[in-house]
Amino acid sequence: MKGGINLVQEDDQLIEMTEQSYDSEDILQSLLEKHPNLLAGDQINEIEPRRWILVSRELYISIEEDASGRFIIDHLLLNQDDIPTLIRFEHHNY
Prior knowledge:
The chain is an alpha+beta fold. It is about 15% helix and about 35% strand. It has one domain. β4 (about 70-80) and β5 form a beta hairpin. The radius of gyration is 17 Å and the shape is extended.
């Protein structure tokens, strides 16, 4: 068996999960908005895994005082230590 991710069915059959693109970025953003625990907080700290709460979605950030330079992040989250996490989805055309 490969080192992939498998889903165990009720009849003990395994279904191998395969990586695939989302039909739209909004689907992935909605999932992360509803389930921020999808982020692998245990990979950051195994003893005290990171947990997040959503602060905002589709947030404009100014990089200059006059707000002429702006960019957008897809999610702003805070962890249990009030440290912000910025999420930006990359767009790939394969």
